[in-house]
Design goal:
heterotrimer; A alpha+beta; B alpha/beta; C mainly alpha; A: alpha+beta; Arc Repressor Mutant, subunit A; 15 helices; 17 strands; 39% helix; B: alpha/beta; 13% strand; globular
């Protein structure tokens, strides 16, 4: 996968093919109860314990919509710079499946709650805008489990009826890196808004991927295939790569692409056709007669707008202007809302430049190493700020700071205490340093001779010796100054 | 004991309140008569033992402030009843025992009612003669081998035969009013949104309404009061102030403007029905009402539109009967095979026919031509009524274009069966309230009904007009208990 | 218009109701007579009419985001055709 976002092209016999990608992201709405019923949405409960009569589609059961889910969808729409529709309609999408108890999914078809919008990606070669076609609300299905019972499929309806936002992009994505950036950006926006936790492992974010290819420079889109239900960025990229190459191979052989739904087999790293044409789906959408159209006036929407927090794009702009960060640094710090919060707390109490470096450097490495989130960091923002202040006011050197950081990560939390108790304070008294330097000079007459006769490189040797004598605590700047004076 | 069953609902309430009769005496009387009347096949399931227990319980500490204190009542088997089998007249729900209670039956229980059984009906309420029920034909007590109408055929039969003092049905295209008309009883379909649909097995969600079926208009007003409530478990339930229908019932209709729509004079309508209609018009005039000729120009399109909308919604509503969660399941080699066999064996022919029609009209390429078209026609029909109601307060029509027919007579001709609902269907499409009251007999001696259609939420007005006509007609059902002798 | 056997097969597949040849023929006849009667609607010009989506004279009711239902697994599975106490069970599904 290309690192520099160079054009993603597939070459065969000197012909270059461009890959066109569109994503339908299914994001689970963060809410306590389900979209049309009052049962809980919690992940990982015992099978069929979070199922109401409505979720299991008992005769005579009726849907009543959760207002919070509507607000979450509107918030997300605002985060996607999209138009919020004053009137939207819930439709039934009819099909039979073991984990679809009603025999239809309540979704939105012709009149979604959110219309067109856009998402801005920060790519190495600049910003790129990806169009959003729409966002609509729908019910999730239950779960079919095929590997417990050898003869049967078992059905767990805990997830049945949980609210999903389906976010449909325009076919504006052109590379695997853009897909990566797009998903991360969506997730970042929704986490800022608190509308979806974006947890791909638990399935709260999954996507159907539309892929087509065309000869570079062609203006018409090729026939697309839809790869259903891919649940990680890595798999999306693998699936797209396989699928695009498959399509190019067919075209190169003089064939044509069938529009179809495909499944990505993660073990074999290939896509395969999911349903035969004979069984082609006809969802028979029609407005759900158990529900009425959802009418929202402007005041209602404006009230929600007032609650929208600063989003990553604005925050990035502010970080660049206020803190003089580079766009690259700003990007890293705003992409995750918790990171941005942490950064703002540290920089409020200490130095911005050092805060940026320490967070993106040492802290990220630490979190990565322990595979934990920033919210679980053993080093609090307050203590990191203290550490930075110790560096800034010369109490400790950067090098010692790393040692202190390591101790903070594992045992003692307060850097001031660590420095005091372990006597790690930097030696900045010129007289004390002069004594050490004098000793080093008198102990190494040959090296002094050699240095003076032109071996400049030996300067480092003297610095090293002084640091060693001072157990690393000597103020390196002062050491440099005094040494230069003494040796020249 | 047998005379107890001759009392009407309001009389029984009165006797309980005056402590002239106990709940147990009344309940046992109706149960005994029900037991003697199995030949009518009105019931699908009975709840006799539990009902007697409930009656005893009621008598031990009677709460006489309730609207129907200790009154036994049998209900259409389309209402889900807790711990009491609910089949919707279908094999596919043969063994289904709900763990919950429909809002309407809960209202009956809360008001002191006792449920004595579940009454036969067309399968999933799809039918006009009760002949589509998996549980067999129902006899009209008026005459042997006569259909009681449908889909609330068991309800109409049980009521007319006095196996229950009153009953409840559901009406999607005429399923309360047509059987009421066929059995010489009163049936009211309330405004859409009056009675909660929660816990009622759905046929066509945008048309279904539960309503009372009784011996007279007073009983009807009382039972409507009991049934009608705002329900936050039904998104289409309307939050309006429900009237005191019984208390406010009056036969004074002076100055009321009653519309007579010319489009209801259909070709081939029997003379007797024409005469009956004239009789109704005369009574209204005699009672001081103004009779005004009106036009509902799109009436003839109502039935075709209905036969698109209702099957379309039904095809989707009935998708949940798939053998997975409850009800009948047929063995299949794989999931799809299981679905296809279960639904093929579990549903009867009429239900399958309607699911097929519904599936077809919603399928890709036909949606605009059929479903969307029908929804537009529905708008036109509603507009017709809106327009008419700028000039009149209510509308008077016959309830049905013919009297009850023989069992089997129309079974092989679906369209002629559907034509039965020609006068009732437009009202469901427009979501309006309408009542059918018995008004006379045809030359065979079979009952005929008149229908009064009201403005939305104007149930009181149509009850009053019905009451005024009822008083002047003094209709009597000629029932000789042929099935008991 | 006519609804032929092929169409009947297609809608029987969509509605998951198996149907044998003989019944399909009868159904085709029934449906054709019903649709002949439905086609009456074509007389009407509805190009300027707005479809009626809902007849209920009210606005969509909105519910608070509150958990009200308890764990009723036993009730949920009680009517299930299979004996399993934890899951609904269907014949093996192969994607």
């Amino acid at each position: 996968m290309s690192k520099n976002n160079e054009e993603y092209l597939i070459k065969r016999n000197n012909i270059e093919y461009e890959v066109i990608i569109g994503l339908e992201v299914h994001a689970q709405v963060l809410s306590k109860s389900k979209l049309f019923s009052t049962s809980p949405t919690k992940f990982g409960s015992e099978p069929n314990t979070q199922v109401s009569l409505v979720d299991a589609a008992f005769p005579g059961m009726l849907p009543v919509i959760n207002e919070f889910c509507i607000k979450q969808a509107i918030k997300t729409g605002i985060g996607l710079n999209a138009k919020i529709n004053n009137r939207s309609i819930f439709d039934r999408k009819n099909y039979f499946y073991a984990d679809l108890p009603q025999g239809y999914q309540i979704s939105q078809y012709k009149n979604p709650i959110v219309g067109e919008g856009s998402v801005t990606l920060d790519m190495p070669d600049g910003e790129k805008k990806i169009g959003i076609e729409r966002l609509h609300l729908e019910q999730d299905a239950g779960k079919s489990i095929h590997d417990i019972d050898p003869k049967n499929t078992l059905v767990d309806l805990n997830r049945s009826g949980v609210a999903l936002m389906e976010i449909v992009s325009k076919p504006d994505l052109r590379s695997l890196d853009e897909v990566n950036a797009y998903i991360k950006k969506l997730r970042s926006i929704m986490r800022y808004l608190g509308t979806c936790d974006g947890n791909m492992q638990e399935g709260s974010l999954r996507a159907d991927v539309n892929v087509s290819v065309r000869k570079k420079g062609a203006s018409e889109l090729g026939t697309r295939c839809e790869i259903k239900n891919v649940n990680s960025i890595k798999f999306m990229q693998m699936a797209i790569n396989y699928e695009a190459n498959r399509q190019v191979d067919i075209l190169e052989d003089g064939g044509s692409i069938d529009q179809e739904t495909r499944l990505f087999d993660t073990k074999k790293n290939e896509t395969r056709s999911m349903r035969t044409k004979e069984d082609a789906h006809d969802y028979r959408y029609f407005p759900d007669p158990d529900l009425l159209p959802l009418e929202l006036n402007d005041e209602y929407i404006d009230d929600i707008k007032k609650d929208i927090p600063e989003l990553p794009d604005e925050k990035k702009k502010r970080f660049i202007e206020k803190f003089k960060l580079s766009p690259y640094e700003a990007n890293i710090l705003v992409s995750d809302i918790e990171t941005s919060k942490y950064f703002e707390e540290v920089s409020k109490k200490s130095d911005v430049k050092l805060a940026t470096n320490w967070i993106t450097g040492e802290l990220f490495a630490l979190l990565n190493d322990k595979s934990i989130e920033i919210t679980e960091s053993p080093i609090s923002s307050e203590n990191l700020a203290k550490l930075i202040n110790l560096i800034k006011d010369g109490t400790i050197s950067g090098k010692i700071a790393k040692t202190v950081f390591e101790i903070m990560a594992n045992k003692e939390k307060d850097p001031v205490k660590i420095v005091e108790e372990r006597g790690l304070k930097q030696q900045s008294d010129p007289k004390e340093l002069e004594m050490i330097i004098d000793k080093v000079i008198s102990d190494n007459p040959k090296n002094v001779e050699a240095y003076k006769s032109g071996k400049d490189k030996l300067f480092g040797f003297f610095v090293g010796q002084v640091m060693k004598q001072s157990s690393g605590k000597a103020n390196p700047q002062l050491v440099n100054e005094i040494l230069k004076k003494k040796l020249n | 004991m047998s005379e107890i069953t001759n009392f009407k609902l309001c009389d029984l309430v009165d006797k309980i309140k005056k402590k002239e009769l106990s709940s147990k005496e009344i309940t046992e009387a109706f149960i005994n008569r029900s037991k003697q009347s199995t030949k009518l096949n009105s019931y699908i399931s009975d709840n006799f033992d539990d009902a007697i227990n409930s009656a005893e319980e009621f008598d031990s500490k009677p709460d006489l402030n309730k609207k129907i204190p200790g009154i036994p009542i049998a209900v259409k088997d389309l209402f889900c009843t807790k711990n009491l089998r609910t089949t919707a007249g279908s094999k596919i729900l043969e063994n289904f025992i709900p763990t919950y209670e429909s809002t309407v039956t809960q209202n009956i229980l809360n008001n002191g009612g006792i449920i004595i059984g579940k009454l036969n009906c067309d399968e999933f309420a799809m039918g006009s003669s009760n002949e589509t029920s998996y549980y067999g034909n129902v006899q009209n007590p008026i005459s042997e081998n006569l259909v009681p109408g449908g889909s609330s055929g068991g309800s109409a039969s049980a009521l007319a035969a006095k196996l229950t003092p009153a009953t409840i049905g559901t009406d999607t295209g005429g399923s309360i009013r047509q059987p009421a008309s066929f059995t010489g009883t009163v049936g009211l379909k309330p405004t859409y949104g009056s009675c909660s649909r929660y816990g009622i097995v759905a046929f066509a969600s945008s048309l279904d309404q539960a309503g009372p079926m009784t011996h007279d208009v007073k009983d009807c007003a009382l039972l409507l009061e009991v049934m009608s409530s705002y329900d936050d478990k039904d998104s289409t339930s309307v939050d309006f102030v429900r009237g005191n229908y019984l208390k406010d019932l009056t036969d004074n209709i002076k100055g009321k403007k009653i519309g007579i729509p010319k489009e209801y004079r259909v070709d081939g309508m029997p003379k007797e029905i024409e005469k009956l209609w004239e009789k109704g018009i005369k009574i209204i005039k005699d009672n001081g009402g103004d009779v005004i000729n009106i036009s509902l120009p799109n009436t003839k399109y109502a039935l075709p539109a209905y036969y698109i909308v209702a099957p379309a919604e039904a095809s989707s509503n009935l998708a949940r009967y798939d053998g997975v969660k409850y009800g009948f399941r047929s063995k299949g080699e794989n999931l799809i095979d299981m679905y296809e066999k279960t639904r093929s064996e579990g549903f009867g022919d009429e239900v399958k026919r309607r699911i097929m029609i519904g599936t077809y009209v919603l399928s890709s390429g036909y949606y605009d031509a059929y479903y969307l078209k029908a929804q537009k026609v529905r708008r036109l029909i509603k507009n017709d009524f809106d327009e008419a109601y700028t000039k009149v307060d209510a509308i008077l029509t016959p309830s049905t274009p013919s009297s009850a027919f023989k069992i089997g007579e129309k079974l092989n001709d679906p369209v002629s069966m559907y034509l039965n609902d020609i006068f009732t269907v437009p009202i469901n499409l427009a979501g309006l309230p309408a009542i059918s009251i018995p008004a006379g007999h045809d030359k065979k001696g079979f009952p005929l009904g008149l229908q009064i259609i009201g403005k939305a939420f104007d149930e009181q007005n149509i009850l009053n007009i019905a009451y005024s006509i009822e008083k002047n007609i003094e209709y009597i059902n000629n029932i000789d208990d042929w099935w008991i002798k | 218009m006519t609804i032929d056997l092929k169409t009947i097969k297609h809608i029987s597949k969509l509605s998951r109701i198996s149907i044998d040849e003989q019944k399909a023929k009868k159904l085709s006849n029934d449906l054709n007579s019903i649709f002949e009667f439905i086609e009456k609607l074509n007389e009407l010009d509805t190009s300027k009419t707005e479809a009626l989506t809902s007849i209920a004279e009210t606005t969509l009711k909105l519910r608070k985001d509150k958990i009200e239902s308890k764990n009723i697994r036993e009730d949920i599975l009680k009517n299930s055709p299979d004996e399993n106490k934890d899951f609904f069970v269907v014949p093996k599904v192969v994607e």
